[in-house]
Design brief:
The complex is a heterodimer of chains A (280) and B (352). Chain A has 280 residues and is α/β, with parallel strands linked by helices. Helix content of chain A is 37%, strand content 24%. Chain B has a single domain, classed as ABC transporter involved in vitamin B12 uptake, BtuC, CATH 1.10.3470. In chain B, helix 3 packs across helix 9 and helix 8 crosses helix 9. Classes of the chains: A alpha/beta (280), B mainly alpha (352).
Chain lengths: 280, 352
């Protein structure tokens, strides 16, 4: 249990001459939430794609449960128990819940060439798995996924991953498109998954959400790992600052001191400060 | 009190029954085909009134059923493709190419009819394969790819026909069995194609809605990236679907050639847009991810009834295209409404 489920060592990824990921080394253990933080364009998506088998790293190695792995396709990753849930839940709005749950692994009944999709079974399992993640509103697996709320869709996708034996969940911005209440719900689902002994990688740029559920944090800047620390080692301000590369803050400080010099050492009044911030 | 007590439950159950009756009809409205069915019934009633007994006679029914059958054989696989999020505008030229192949092989060269039919289907399958390959490998929108193949293939068909036969129309004297299987008029009116259509509907309907892999088609059209990440071989699904739409078109080419004892280079181009109209009127979402075989059948019937019904009204048939245009727009608006209903009102307010 203490050995890392997934271990990345010096992973690099470049597209042509553009280096997108630079010497990334990371570990994630079972029953632990690793929060991957970073601004837009920091390389989070590419890293997820490497982890989930969409891209092969240019160099560096990956180990799953102590074994060296090379993912040639998303299927290889999912065979190893790595499941990725995308921002919109990777769900199909105009499909029924049962069908959506079993896409790509349809349950069959009947015999020979007349094997058919087992609608009833699919619906029941989907509803049951969602229930185990705390979604009790849904009782009919034939309903369309598009009728679910954002949080419920995430639950559907996560429930699906768990059902198919995922050991590592990669959640790509699961709370980005959600309201406060829905987001809280999703965070609770993440905690539930963690409690069930899953390893979770939560990708987000919402520091508040990350701090609520994370055990371990990694900050990406321009494709490189800028910081790697455990819960409680940094404050929220430090993390936010880090994500913005510290530049935004330094810039603001410079402007304030420029203001002070221009105004005989007077600190900016609140309205002046507002003006400075608005100019940015 | 005692009387009340005994009557209570039965009153409640009566009330409950009264409540479930409208719920059933409402749940029908949430089916994707609801709008399509209403459309088909509406145009049927409309032309039954204005077309009178002639429209309702067996001759009248045959006229639109024949149109529906030929269109339907193409529209069903085209509909599948659209559910998977792709268009196929090349079916017109595939019909022409298959017709000419059958006619040249079995008519001009005089080989047995079966050879011509097989050759036509091989040509169709090959074109479908090329379409699928081009769409999946180049990432150029399928609208453009298949528009290009439609033109390209029309050119190839014309060119080869002239080189080989020196003309653009070739006649054919099909074998007895082939005439019976593909080109007979049952009771002198109903094309045998109607049965081919029924077979295609049953086969594809089973595949899409009941077979486990039918789900893949909907998934590919709903969200290609998610579908790929669940391990669905998206490229293979698309190539397979392009082959099936081309094979459907080939079958129509064979049927027309054998029915009319010959083929012309310009056959079939009307099928390109007519098939799309039938599919869209049938409630399939143009961008993919939603639709049903029943819907496409209804859309095909609606199209056929309108395009033929006009001749029974005594009005100038020039107006048929106008009615089709209006119908297409109304049908899409109606389908959007029903689709929204299916999405939003999916939350049954549980009282019990």
């Amino acid at each position: 249990m203490n050995a890392p489920f997934l271990k990345l060592t010096d992973v690099c990824k470049s597209f042509g001459s553009t280096q997108v990921l630079n010497d990334i080394s990371l570990e994630v253990k079972r029953g632990e939430v690793l929060c991957l933080l970073g601004d837009n364009g920091a390389g989070k998506s590419t890293l997820i794609k490497v982890l989930s088998g969409f891209h092969e790293p240019t160099s560096g190695t990956m180990d799953v449960e102590g074994e060296r792995v090379v993912f040639k396709s998303p299927r290889d990753a999912s065979d190893r128990g790595i499941a990725t849930v995308h921002q919109f839940g990777g769900t199909f709005p105009l499909m029924s819940i049962g069908r959506c749950f079993f896409v790509g692994a349809e349950p069959k009944k009947g015999w020979g060439p007349f094997k058919r999709f087992d609608r009833k079974f699919a619906g029941e399992v989907a509803v049951r798995e969602m229930r185990s993640l705390g979604i009790t509103r849904i009782t009919d697996g034939d309903r369309l996924v598009g009728g679910l709320s954002g949080g419920e869709r995430q639950a559907l996708a996560i429930g699906r991953a768990v059902h198919f034996g995922a050991k590592l969940l990669i959640l790509d911005e699961p709370t980005a498109a959600l309201g406060v209440k829905e987001a809280t719900h999703v965070l609770r689902i993440i905690m539930q998954a963690r409690q069930q002994g899953l390893a979770v990688i939560l990708v987000t740029h919402n520091v508040t959400h990350a701090m609520k559920v994370g055990d371990h944090f990694a900050v990406l800047i321009h494709g490189a790992l800028a910081a790697d620390f455990r819960k409680g080692e940094r404050t929220r301000e430090e993390i936010t600052d880090l994500m913005a590369g510290g530049e935004a803050m330094a810039e603001l400080e410079a402007e304030i001191s420029a203001f002070e010099q221009a105004h005989d050492g007077h600190a900016p009044e609140p309205e002046d400060l507002e003006r400075i911030l608005n100019e940015k | 009190m005692a009387v009340n007590m005994t009557h209570g439950p039965s009153e409640v159950s009566a009330k409950r029954k009264a409540r479930t009756a409208p719920a059933v009809s409402l749940s029908f409205l949430r089916r994707p085909e609801a709008g399509a069915l209403i459309g088909t019934l509406a145009v049927f009633v409309f032309f039954a009134i204005f077309g009178g007994a002639q429209f309702l006679s067996s001759g009248g029914s045959a006229s639109w059923l024949n149109v529906a059958a030929e269109l339907g054989i193409v529209a069903i696989p085209v509909g599948l493709l659209m559910i998977a999020g792709e268009l196929d505008l090349s079916v017109g030229s595939v019909i022409a190419a298959s017709s000419m192949t059958t006619a040249i092989v079995s008519g001009y060269w005089g080989l047995p009819t079966i050879v011509g039919i097989v050759a036509a289907l091989v040509v169709g399958g090959a074109i479908g394969f090329v379409n699928g390959l081009l769409v999946t490998k180049t990432n150029v929108p399928s609208f453009v790819v298949t528009l290009a193949t439609n033109f390209g293939l029309a050119g190839i068909t014309l060119g080869f026909s002239r080189v080989i036969t020196g003309t653009t129309s070739v006649s054919l004297n099909p074998d007895e069995w082939a005439k019976g299987l593909f080109g007979t008029l049952i009771a002198g009116q109903f094309e045998v194609a109607i049965f081919w259509w029924i077979a295609v509907v049953l086969g594809v309907g089973w595949f899409l809605h009941f077979a486990p892999r039918g789900n893949w088609i909907v998934a590919v059209g709903g969200d290609t990236i998610s579908a790929r990440s669940t391990g669905i071989p998206v490229e293979k699904v698309k190539i397979g679907l392009y082959m099936s739409s081309a094979l459907g078109a080939s079958l129509v080419g064979v049927i027309q050639t054998i029915l009319y004892n010959g083929a012309q280079v310009a056959n079939g181009q009307a099928f390109v847009f007519n098939s799309i109209i039938a599919v869209v009127v049938g409630g399939v979402l143009l961008t993919g991810g939603y639709g049903s075989v029943v819907g496409v059948v209804l859309g095909t019937l609606t199209f056929a009834i309108v395009s033929q019904g006009i001749y029974y009204t005594g009005w100038n048939s020039d107006w048929a295209a106008l009615i089709l245009g209006i119908l297409l727009l109304v049908a899409v608006l109606m389908n959007n409404t029903f689709r929204k209903m299916a999405l939003s009102s999916g939350t049954p307010k549980k009282k019990a």
